[in-house]
């Protein structure tokens, strides 16, 4: 099967936005054994988009589009596609109910533009969008396949993986199986450097890195005649990556740092308390994302001022005078204080300079200390982070969650 990618959007055509969608889709089609001979970028113009469809379907079997499915008047993709196939646009009831529920919960007005997103091509199948209101579309007629997806990558990528890949597998001779490794505490460039040789020689299975919210995901994908053969291809690669990235791979599949940590805490009936300064409650909030964490999480405190650190956590005035609030000594006392005053097995703390103000030559923006009290043992971790205020807080939170995961796993092994 020959596929063509049409990226729709004037902002792409003018270079205002980098076309990462086409790159992603092309790589994944290669993994599936579907050849991509052409890529087209076209603006939000009815005539030029119609011309793009005419050309694409003359030379390709599968046409995959991104963009132009939104609520505004210049979102024309499915309207032009319906006209090309001489079909009407009809309301997809399931999509409309989902959109209605989304807006009703948020007490937002459901406009005609939003309703427009629930329209699909007559005879097509709506592909549920778990991260947005515009569904994807799958349509086939006379041996030609059209797959339409929204433009935002945060919507397109999961829709492609969860809805489109199973459809595309119908047009290949092999099955496709993937294993996802979740990585934190190390940047994409460092990950790629450690497994560069594996990526350079990859054929089957393939290794695809993705970055999101300060984490790196590696998708190892094998093409095989059956599941057993796919597993045999994937497992040695997974084992090698785990060895090279030991301490950074925190989980597999559809999971998160807070889910892995929460599961470990509940498994061992460990009580935890959190004292935050620079993260301002972000660490506690992330852990609260995990259902059932109330059985483990005793409390989370934002002790931002020195007075609060002394009064609530028993951080000594001498420590603050001698070393400052941003110090390993303060971080350890914060962790110890929150653990002992809450009668918890684990106390963890964060204190640092998130910026953009407040840094000095000795203590620059991005300097963060984490403190840990775990069953009477005390540790600290010094971080040197870069980026804006939000990124520093996010990375600190990720690294704190990862540190706890690794410490509990070491404790499990008696190390």
From TrEMBL:
Residues of the MoaB/Mog domain: 4-171
Any Pfam family the entry gives: MoCF_biosynth
Superkingdom in the source lineage: Bacteria
SMART domains: MoCF_biosynth (SM00852)
InterPro entries found in the cross-reference section: CinA, CinA-like_C, CinA_C, CinA_KH, Competence-induced_CinA, MoaB/Mog-like_dom_sf, MoaB/Mog_dom
CDD domains: cinA
HAMAP family hit by this protein: CinA_B (MF_00226_B)
NCBIfam families per the UniProt record, alphabetical: cinA_nterm, molyb_syn, PncC_domain, PRK00549.1
Family: Belongs to the CinA family.
The name this protein goes by in its record: Putative competence-damage inducible protein
The encoding gene: cinA
């Amino acid at each position: 099967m020959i596929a063509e990618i049409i990226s729709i959007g004037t902002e792409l055509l003018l270079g205002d936005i980098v076309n990462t969608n086409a790159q992603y889709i092309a790589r994944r089609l290669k993994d599936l054994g579907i050849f991509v001979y052409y890529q087209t970028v076209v603006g939000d113009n009815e005539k030029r988009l119609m011309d793009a469809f005419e050309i694409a379907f003359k030379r390709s079997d599968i046409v995959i589009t991104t963009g132009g499915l939104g609520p505004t008047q210049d979102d024309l993709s499915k309207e032009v596609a319906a006209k090309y196939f001489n079909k009407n646009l009809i309301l997809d009831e399931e999509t409309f109910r989902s959109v209605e529920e989304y807006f009703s919960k948020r007490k937002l007005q459901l406009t005609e533009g939003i309703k427009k997103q629930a329209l699909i091509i007559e005879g097509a199948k709506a592909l549920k969008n778990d991260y947005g209101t515009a569904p994807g579309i799958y349509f086939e007629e006379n041996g030609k396949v059209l797959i339409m997806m929204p433009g935002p990558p945060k919507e397109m990528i999961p829709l492609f993986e969860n809805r489109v890949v199973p459809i595309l597998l119908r047009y290949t001779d092999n099955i496709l199986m993937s294993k996802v490794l979740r990585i934190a505490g190390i940047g994409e460039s460092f990950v790629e450097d450690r497994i560069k040789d594996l990526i350079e020689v990859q054929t089957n299975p393939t290794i695809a890195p993705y970055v999101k919210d300060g984490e790196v995901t590696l998708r190892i994908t094998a093409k095989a005649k059956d599941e057993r053969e796919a597993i045999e291809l994937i497992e040695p690669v997974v084992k090698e990556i785990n060895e090279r990235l030991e301490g950074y791979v925190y989980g597999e599949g559809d999971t998160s740092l807070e889910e892995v940590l929460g599961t470990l805490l509940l498994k061992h009936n460990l009580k935890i308390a959190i004292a935050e300064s620079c993260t301002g409650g972000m660490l506690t909030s992330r852990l609260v994302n995990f259902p059932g964490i109330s059985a483990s999480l005793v409390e989370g405190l934002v002790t931002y001022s020195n007075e609060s650190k002394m009064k609530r956590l028993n951080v000594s005035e001498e420590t603050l005078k001698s070393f400052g609030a941003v110090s390993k000594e303060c971080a350890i006392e914060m962790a110890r204080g929150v653990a002992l005053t809450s009668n918890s097995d684990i106390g963890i703390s964060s204190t640092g300079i998130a910026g953009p103000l407040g840094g000095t030559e000795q203590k620059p923006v991005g300097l963060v200390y984490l403190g840990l009290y775990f069953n009477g043992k005390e540790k600290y971790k010094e971080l040197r982070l870069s980026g804006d205020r939000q990124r520093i807080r996010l990375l600190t939170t990720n690294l704190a969650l990862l540190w706890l995961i690794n410490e509990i796993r070491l404790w499990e092994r008696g190390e």
